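Example for tutorial group B:
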């Protein structure tokens, strides 16, 4: 829009565009932003950091539905109380003690000093695997400042700081 009326896009003109870091890097096939940006700059934290900080600050997160989203079958979500203590589970003689928790959910006893990145890895998942807590992803990011949060290099060795 120019002035008070709509004008066709001029292919010879330069336009200002505001986008998120995903689109700026050519996400969703918009490579034109990554390759043809003039005076392009990234300002502020990445969206993944903003979202993680927001979720930590607003824990537990409860989305506002404003009547736009409805549930076909409401689900009761228990909210832990600070004054109540969960009852200890009854001992099950048929299960060995190690079978109580799946192996994937148990954090390793010692944290390794490095990690080789695999396809599909991200800081959150690696932090869950190594520390048992996805919110520790910032430790990994800070210890590896040359690694892009959205594009971890497959096969590269990442430094892993101690818990």
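The residue assignment follows.
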């Amino acid at each position: 829009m120019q002035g008070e009326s709509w004008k066709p896009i001029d292919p010879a003109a330069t336009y200002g565009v505001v986008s998120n870091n995903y689109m700026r890097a050519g996400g969703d096939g918009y490579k034109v932003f990554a390759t043809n940006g003039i005076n392009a700059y990234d300002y502020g934290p990445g969206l993944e950091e903003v979202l993680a900080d927001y979720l930590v600050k607003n824990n537990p997160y409860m989305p506002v539905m404003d009547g736009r989203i409805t549930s076909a079958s409401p689900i009761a979500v228990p909210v832990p109380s600070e004054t109540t203590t969960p009852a200890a589970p009854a001992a099950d003689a048929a299960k060995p003690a190690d079978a109580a928790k799946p192996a994937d959910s148990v954090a390793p006893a010692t944290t390794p000093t490095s990690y080789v990145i695999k396809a599909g890895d991200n800081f959150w998942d690696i932090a869950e695997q190594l520390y048992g807590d996805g919110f520790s992803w910032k430790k990994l990011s800070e210890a590896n400042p040359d690694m892009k949060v959205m594009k971890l290099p497959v096969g590269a060795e990442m430094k892993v700081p101690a818990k």
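The longest strand covers residues 114-116. Compare this with the pattern of hydrophobic and polar residues in the output above.
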